[in-house]
Amino acid sequence: xxxxxxxxxxxxxxxxxxxxxxxxxxxxxxxxxxxxxxxxxxxxxxxxxxxxxxxxxxxxxxxxxxxxxxxxxxxxxxxxxxxxxxxxxxxxxxxxxxxxxxxxxxxxxxxxxxxxxxxxxxxxxxxxxxxxxxxxxxxxxxxxxxxxxxxxxxxxxxxxxxxxxxxxxxxxxxxxxxxxxxxxxxxxxxxxxxxxxxxxxxxxxxxxxxxxxxxxxxxxxxxxxxxxxxxxxxxxxxxxxxxxxxxxxxxxxxxxxxxxxxxxxxxxxxxxxxxxxxxxxxxxxxxxxxxxxxxxxxxxxxxxxxxxxxxxxxxxxxxxxxxxxxxxxxxxxxxxxxxxxxxxxxxxxxxxxxxxxxxxxxxxxxx
Amino acid sequence: xxxxxxxxxxxxxxxxxxxxxxxxxxxxxxxxxxxxxxxxxxxxxxxxxxxxxxxxxxxxxxxxxxxxxxxxxxxxxxxxxxxxxxxxxxxxxxxxxxxxxxxxxxxxxxxxxxxxxxxxxxxxxxxxxxxxxxxxxxxxxxxxxxxxxxxxxxxxxxxxxxxxxxxxxxxxxxxxxxxxxxxxxxxxxxxxxxxxxxxxxxxxxxxxxxxxxxxxxxxxxxxxxxxxxxxxxxxxxxxxxxxxxxxxxxxxxxxxxxxxxxxxxxxxxxxxxxxxxxxxxxxxxxxxxxxxxxxxxxxxxxxxxxxxxxxxxxxxxxxxxxxxxxxxxxxxxxxxxxxxxxxxxxxxxxxxxxxxxxxxxxxxxxx
Amino acid sequence: xxxxxxxxxxxxxxxxxxxxxxxxxxxxxxxxxxxxxxxxxxxxxxxxxxxxxxxxxxxxxxxxxxxxxxxxxxxxxxxxxxxxxxxxxxxxxxxxxxxxxxxxxxxxxxxxxxxxxxxxxxxxxxxxxxxxxxxxxxxxxxxxxxxxxxxxxxxxxxxxxxxxxxxxxxxxxxxxxxxxxxxxxxxxxxxxxxxxxxxxxxxxxxxxxxxxxxxxxxxxxxxxxxxxxxxxxxxxxxxxxxxxxxxxxxxxxxxxxxxxxxxxxxxxxxxxxxxxxxxxxxxxxxxxxxxxxxxxxxxxxxxxxxxxxxxxxxxxxxxxxxxxxxxxxxxxxxxxxxxxxxxxxxxxxxxxxxxxxxxxxxxxxxx
Amino acid sequence: xxxxxxxxxxxxxxxxxxxxxxxxxxxxxxxxxxxxxxxxxxxxxxxxxxxxxxxxxxxxxxxxxxxxxxxxxxxxxxxxxxxxxxxxxxxxxxxxxxxxxxxxxxxxxxxxxxxxxxxxxxxxxxxxxxxxxxxxxxxxxxxxxxxxxxxxxxxxxxxxxxxxxxxxxxxxxxxxxxxxxxxxxxxxxxxxxxxxxxxxxxxxxxxxxxxxxxxxxxxxxxxxxxxxxxxxxxxxxxxxxxxxxxxxxxxxxxxxxxxxxxxxxxxxxxxxxxxxxxxxxxxxxxxxxxxxxxxxxxxxxxxxxxxxxxxxxxxxxxxxxxxxxxxxxxxxxxxxxxxxxxxxxxxxxxxxxxxxxxxxxxxxxxx
Lengths: 367, 367, 367, 367
What we know:
The structure is a homotetramer of 367-residue chains.
Chain A: E1 5-6, E2 11-16, E3 22-28, H1 38-48, E4 65-67, E5 71-72, E6 75-76, E7 81-86, H2 96-100, H3 108-115, H4 131-148, E8 153-161, E9 164-165, H5 186-202, E10 208-215, H6 229-238, E11 243-248, H7 259-262, E12 266-268, E13 274-276, E14 284-285, E15 288-289, E16 294-300, E17 310-313, E18 319-322, H8 333-358
Antiparallel strand pairs in A: 1-2, 2-3, 3-7, 4-7, 5-6, 8-9, 8-10, 10-16, 11-16, 12-13, 14-15, 17-18
């Protein structure tokens, strides 16, 4: 029942605070015999790492991941894998202001109300830094998926930054790695650069929308009712810091469609697998994957730390004002992209193992 | 790890198929000493019951709930409560068509692909009928909340039906029980009546948006990272049939706001509790309740069963056409309102018990 | 985290009280496509049913099991199976004495101290009647095992009744079904008949030892550390009413052996599988099955309800005396035999599914 | 469902191998505000540490524990606590023999059969070294218990070593820390010294029996059926390496008693709490604590590594002989004493939090 864990069989427990000695992920249920090493995991961590462009926090963290257990001679053994990342850039600074004042939009006040104690240095456990652990675990999940479902691909990208959305007719997945925003629309990326540059100078911040797509997911993953694939994806994405909404396929827009408009008709493909006229469902029917692309979107709120003074109260209940200085992201959504991918990888691997355990390999064949 | 269960301490497992002898909920972790009886639970079930207006399915089910265990002399004993609802209107009819053909938008094809067997009578386990069990469990959760958190109120209502949304300036919660749509805007309710009347005649269907608000939630419920209150709410709502998106507070729109616009500033209230200038957060910061209203929205897709013929395939892979006759809801969102309320009640009670277990009563005081 | 559930993938939640309308088991994680029906399950329930000889309680219960969900056209569908047994022989009698007085050795006092409320009719949830639900679930597990591991056999029997143990040189498994004690030693069975006859007349009771053996268990089931096969077997058996100790293989006697005496040497069998010189380990090494017989023993304390007056207190704390009349078992161990078998079946199936999920079919080959 | 975790609310996941860089415990559900530091935890680790007498392995490990998260300014914050112990004495040696041959009585063969890969250096995950993590977690549990249940005491000791048992009439708890065997009987300790000295020289080993007693446990901990306090204790103890049997109170001997002999009669104590004439029950009735001493015993098999040659096979299935050299414990039971205490502490804290969450503070009062 651990509240810092996710997954059923492939089970990830993250630990550690933003300014403690280290943070990491304890990962149980990793299938044995998966080839993995620190270099591979580092690849994914480097994508999330801060300080890579002027649009993300200037905190300098090497985010070097170490594998402390569960891997022997380059292969997983089936026992728990401990992934540790040491915190190296914990600037010694004066925390007395945020120790006493609650920063609006942050978890300062609720942690205090809940626990009566909080690690006030940089958000403690509620810091976005916690997501480094998830990316490390996601790297492990990707390695396992690569051997179990060859061809499965997971790609995340931003589709909206404040008022500026991408134009889907211009989408080109080749662009995603070519700009600091994981943006598949080169023109939108340029607009975002201008827009975020301005925001950053004014000390403001902005929200964003991220889309994560998994291609090559086998049909049959998920389970009825509460073990739905979309249920677990919704939980996975909503658990990421600052996320305020999650959609599958048509998402919130489904409220506005008729049954005729929303229908994904079914045909038989040349390869003997069903094909669909459209993918309003986002690759999931009744909680179970159809074999189409699994499509998830989530919205990230604007970073709460801004340079504009805000009204708040102190621990002793006195009214005061706060300006949150520090090394913050003007658009925390950017670094949420690799995190969303990692969560997708973890959920898919978990459901693959669940399916294999509960049902085995004998599925219903069509035709 | 049951895939048909939800909740950590207050743990609900639903069972049963649409056309089997009965369905129900096995509820463990119910606090002892809660006054509850079948009449109370029936009140909530009657709100979800089909056939109450021409806008919902005409299937006639008494939906009579029985308490088979865990209640003694009108009080819960702390042992599992079994809630059973017998299916009474299982029309004997010819299922041979849907036994062979996969209905688009339904779980027919994915259940088949996953399990290689499915109860094809009326959707089996994937039928919206399963939500009756949730409403029964939700009634139990409400009874427990009533004794543990006096004053806590949970209200659900529809805010959008296809192209027609409510006007929030006209919202009047007194209207919610006065129309068949749980609509807080009397004028919108009239528009919906016309619109849905037309859809029903043409054999079409439409999606909807539901909002559920909990007032009087104590600050401090929820937990960091994966045990976030919003994580569990997202999972709870996404697990309801036909739901395609879930939002907390500002939700997907947060992607479009700046940090300045999104900030909920903090003040000290006259009662010695913090008050906020706004509630963009939807009552949750860092996964933990602030004491403000907890606000969740979810989108329900249009009913997939429509009278218009649709292309599909058979179990043997042959192309065919299907028209889904039957007693279906033109807008399944209507009956999702009491289900959303039930899920909110279950999640809040669960987190109340979790908090009490993990932290106890000693919270951080402000002031 | 349900406290009335056991199993990881094959997950059984039992519910119901001794004198309520019904009791049963909600079983999730049942593999799809398993042939099962009520007649098959009834077979196992009839073995545990009371009133079959003068050595067990004279309560007359049909113990008729009904399958309410999860089985369609004679096969499991992979969705939750609800197994319900109605209570039919709830004699109306005067419970005022046991409502006020705590019966020594029963859970009356601890339920009261824990919950502040208890169903005092016949033990409520703590009644041995709860084990009927386990036997029903065990029947389902056996059906699944029969299709997944042909040849696997589970047999339980009594080895000790008070001072009278079996003589292992006289063991003959063919005897087990030939006497009312599941005794593999015909001579011991005769001694027990005499001994228990005397005890019954004097209103006394006695403890017993039960051994359950699973033959044909594949090597590789279980997991290191806390998911050990023996850990789960110990929990399963200890959770049965009145059990006070559990042993695997050599058990408590291992404390008295030297390493030389305890070693199970390994050889290569003619069939290409390892064979062992002995089975001190009880078929489990490091928490994982070896392929040898899995051997578990557990001790059941004497029935606490005896005719001899005993000192106790009332709910209001006054000293008093109690004689527990009623229809009790002079040796509750007899009916624990089918329960132990059922728990073994559930644990083995669960670990089979766990193994299949986590590791898959590719195991390490020897040779 | 993590198979390397135990506990419901206070949830411990251990990780790490005997010869990897480090091992440890990720502990979630730690109540906030508990004063704890590394020095306190080290106290418990030092009791389990190898190399403290000639009767335990001569491996030299500092077993220095580090707290990497979840503690801030000397107090727990309610977030996960990471406890890490670096392995320092991993002698570089030739493992080629045990890499190829399966050591009888060890998990070598079953890990191989299960996973098809194993860390063959010193037992990997199945090494008794894993229990260092448990002792660290147990230290944390003790710290929390000290603040939540002042006066609760947990004491473990050995009662049997091979043929030599303690004489309970000579028991003196003051002796436990005065000899290298945690023996409460000074005379038995001398016998053990002689006996183990001889065994060690001859390269043999021996089993042992450990008893752990918790005094001052409040009445009401535990839950019916599968969440029984004794169920969790049985699982906890059986999960320790080399344990083959677990007993509560009268234990296996209960099989030999009559109801008259086994009855613990109830009286009212001067302090308004129930007292009992005896404690055959071991402090637990119906799975729930009575307020009496909770008494658990477990048997540890003899160390499998002995100097006498044993028959075995290689990975390729060839017959061979093995002599397990190395730095092993002649009686691994000695170091199991602090481990048993740690497991008791973890289980009691967990059930205390469970009770507080599910039931709250309002229990049934007697009188």
